[in-house]
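Predict the 3D structure for this chain.
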Amino acid sequence: MDADVKGKRAKKKPFKWTRELVRLALNDGWTQLEIAEKCRTQQSIVSAWNKGSKQGTEEQLLPLLNLYGHKLRRNTFKVYWSLNAESLEKTFYRVEGKIMFSQEFCDLRRDKSGKLLKKIPEHKLVVHHQGADQYRIVHQRRFAFKELRQEIEHQVEEAFWNSSVEELMDAEKLIRYMDQFCTKLLTSYPGDALTLPFLIRRALILHGVPVPGVMDYPAAW
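Done. Predicted structure below.
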């Protein structure tokens, strides 16, 4: 798909943080009428944005995004870290953007009869939406004591994951990445890996992102 066409579609799709963005402006002293004039719409539409009953498009909200987008991004972020097993060098990451997808890959602990005792998450994929058609994957592997074959536990979940942060990618590249990744883990985590292609497409569709190759059967209202 042409990059210009994708960019235009992204600007016209509903902006999921419309309400939060409008409230940042209102809290900064703007009136609904001033927001309506700035965004070239009606006050009744801004009122609906503020109530959360409607969402504006990125194109409509661009004046507010230019002023308050940085504050909105600061309100949606996660902190991760990694630890080099040999050098013990620590690296810390702050990743902005709402988490739109998260999938764990679990070791299924069973007794001798095959009964499932517990599921231990060992790998995890987290996807941050960083605006427009931009996504960033955080790939996580759980810390463990190899000698004791025991996982690290902590009340703060992010603390026991060794994380690496991928480069930005668009939705098409994100889907390809997930499709390829699932084949690598299919043997070790068949259930979690097998469902990954479906789950990432489902997450994108639920976020209003066009996904190629999906057969659409619209209702007749």
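The chain has a mean pLDDT of 85.
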